[in-house]
Amino acid sequence: MIEAVRLRRIVNANYASRLAKRSREMAKIYSEMAASPYESGEARPPLSEQTMTEIKALNLDQMFVQAVTLRGAVDYTLCTFILRSIGALTELPRARRLGLVRLVLRHFEALLPVADAVASFLNSCVDMSSSKKRSTCRQIMNKLKRMDAAGASPFLAIWMLDALSRDPEWNHASLVANLFSTTKSEVVRRSCAVALYRIGNRAHALQVRDHFNQASPMLRTAILLATRKLSDDEREHWRRLMNLSSAVERAL
Q: Residues with Cβ < 8 Å from 153, sequence gap 6 or more?
């Protein structure tokens, strides 16, 4: 336990040092947030009124744009802190969060190396209206489809499909099914199948099921999950016809 606390302090100090080179204001805010650590699954301790006043006074939009575009090199340390820590604060005014959403969409491709931070930020957008979520999701899925067609890394798609499938209000199962059918990346296809297991319906399960015989073992397990949207009798009959080859497949 003592070693874990010591390691956390070292990590926090290193991150604070890196952040201070980008923004003294952000480094100060980070130091206060790190001073009250909490474990995963616990509620974050409330920040002081002074710290929240400082956060609300920041021009987050300008700082984010500068982090993405300044000198032609993306400042991923600052981008990550804005998205994962500041953008996720429940106390952050809704208008400020929506402003960050617009900037994420505008600079989407440049944020590929910090896809996990983008996913964390989207998961925190619980105060967005259903219509805004649908609109945002359509734009993200269209961007993912263009990037996939251009042969981009699947890293961003993996994180986005996971994040957007955790809340049905994003309402994008048909777009995921379309990406499943058009992508040439088996990694992206597997992520689509897992997402459809969470948010899809019987029609999507039937569409995914048709790819089972030609799939690799990695993709076959995801397809088996997606077919749980079929009725029990329908799925069991199909499983018998497929002659499942491994213990893992039979367990799914």
A: 112
For residue range 134-191, list pLDDT tens digits in order.
999 999 999 999 999 999 999 999 999 999 999 888 878 999 999 999 999 999 999 9
Q: What is the residue extent of each domain of the chain?
A: 1-20+53-128, 133-252
